[in-house]
Amino acid sequence: MRKIKAAAVQAAPVYMNLSASIDKVEGLVEEAARNGAELVAFPETFLSGYPWFIWLMAPANWARFMPQYHENSLALDSLEMARLQAIAAKSKVTLVMGFSERAGGTRYMAQSIIGPDGVAILHRRKLKPTHAERTVFGEGDGSDLQVVDSAFGRLGALNCWEHLQPLTKMAMYSQNEEVHVASWPSFCNCRDLVYAFGPEVNNAASRIYAVEGSCFVLAPSSTVSQEMFDMLCETPEQAHLLNTRTSGPGGGFSMIYGPDGRPLCEPLAEDVEGILYADLDPHQIIYAKSGADPIGHYSRPDTLSLNFDRRKKRIVHDIVPRQFEQTDAAEDRTPSEAANNA
């Protein structure tokens, strides 16, 4: 790894508006690049927003939001994805984008890593959506747990409560991860009703990932905007659920951590949009791993080990019986070939 300046975005998208949200992404990436960042990380499902409605009302009531949410999710083979790649190339940054991926009739909580040349290095999906998220999103598989070679070092990414799954984390650590993007939504939904949804627990998860993995962790999180309250909250009770502290905008608690767990920047207020920056010095990884390397001298493979199935899973496997293979081959022969074999 070489030394770089990295940026973690704390902002709200233009809710359920993919084109306008990408416009906002472009401005934020250009600002980060002007300030010297080579890596820019965005929150979970930044495009085009986290589906907060699933926590605020019964499915029969929130189903009306699904057509708009699905249509403003991002398909991998789309012009919008090509535009994201062009944005990364224009600013010469490595871009880690969180988005709702649209694939056929299903959505996935996805992240893409795009290099400074605009080439997509990795597309991945959240291994297991959390709780009510499973009513909206499908699951990933072992092929989505990858650490890749980037322009500056070994880079990986996970979403939200994937950072609470010990075996998932170990699968990532085992790939010599040096910089990790921990993408989160906002930390305001039900946070006083369910303490684990709040910033204390989830920032602790990002921090311990840095310490356990001896790696840098960028932990961008979104803010919940007034636009989201106006669109989703029809009662004071729903506004209270969306932010139990203020019933108004907030929930941003972004941070960048060093391999020893120390914060590398000052936080923004929870209702403020902006970009956090930190210099990532690879010597800090050496210092941290000299104390505890989870896949080296601080491991005990004789006692504990992990089975990691990296294969991509498919719902349909085409099996062609032998007689059909022979028939197909015969049909594919030219007339002269058929005559020669007669």
Please write out the topology:
Layout: E1 4-10, H1 18-34, E2 39-41, H2 53-56, H3 59-62, H4 66-71, H5 79-91, E3 94-103, E4 106-114, E5 120-125, E6 137-138, E7 147-149, E8 154-159, H6 166-173, E9 179-183, H7 199-213, E10 216-219, H8 226-232, H9 236-242, E11 255-257, E12 274-280, H10 283-291, H11 322-332, H12 335-341
Parallel strand pairs: 1-2, 2-3, 4-6, 8-9, 9-10
Antiparallel strand pairs: 1-12, 3-4, 4-5, 7-8, 10-11
Plain-language structure description:
The protein has 342 residues and is of the alpha/beta class. The protein is 32% helix and 19% strand. The chain has helices spanning 18-34, 53-56, 59-62, 66-71, 79-91, 166-173, 199-213, 226-232, 236-242, 283-291, 322-332, 335-341; strands at 4-10, 39-41, 94-103, 106-114, 120-125, 137-138, 147-149, 154-159, 179-183, 216-219, 255-257, 274-280. The strands form 2 sheets. Strands 1, 2, 3, 4, 5, 6 and 12 form a 7-stranded mixed β-sheet that branches. Strands 7-8-9-10-11 form a 5-stranded mixed β-sheet, covered by helices on one side. Helix 1 packs parallel to helix 5. The N and C termini lie far apart (64 Å).
CATH architecture heading: 4-Layer Sandwich
Strand content: 15-25%
What are the low-pLDDT stretches, counting only 5+ consecutive residues below 50? none
Helicity, as a percent range: 25-40%
Write down the oligomeric state. Answer: single chain
Radius of gyration: 22 Å
Condensed summary:
The protein is α/β, with parallel strands linked by helices. It has 12 helices and 12 strands.
